[in-house]
Amino acid sequence: MSIPLPLPHPEPIEDPEPRPHLFPVPDPLDGWGSEDPELEAIATRRAVRPALPDPEEVAPAFALALLEIEAGYRALPQLERLCTFDLSQALLPGLPRAGLPRPHAGTLLRVRARESEPGLADVVALAQRGPRARAFGFRLDASEGRWRVSDVAW
Fold first, then answer.
1. What is the DSSP string of 89-123?
2. In the chain, how many domains are there?
3. In the chain, at which end, N or C, are there fewer CB atoms within 10 A of the end residue's CB?
4. Which domain holds residue 117?
5. Cα–Cα distance between 80 and 87 in angstroms, integer?
6. pTM of the model
7. Higher pLDDT, 4 or 33
8. Is pLDDT of 44 > 50?
9. Are 122 and 113 in contact (CB under 8 A)?
């Protein structure tokens, strides 16, 4: 079987319906974090995390400070340095008032921390106050360039 040369040039086929325009996808890293505060916080956490100590090392100090804050042994300015502004405002109504008897701050029995993503660590602490032991959890956040407590669950 022989093929005749040269082959005839085929006629272009036209689409019966026009195709929708395809729009280019924006580069996800172009201006990353400039509009969304959560993306900006993630970028900051990842940037500062290598310079910060391991959360397992600093978690006991934060846990003890939270126990002392709850018992009324630490002042409000110390609370503001340890916690984010939103959390310090949320904790204010539950703090003991002056003139009331203070409970014992308690003893830390165990503290465990796990970093779920760079610069964001979840911590669980077991504390004993009197004959009873109780667990509480908090989140350490490095989005402001240092470890701060951003959430507490008593």
1. HHHGGGSPPTTSPPPP--EEEEEEEEEEETTEEEE
2. 1
3. N
4. 104-154
5. 9
6. 0.71
7. 4
8. yes
9. yes
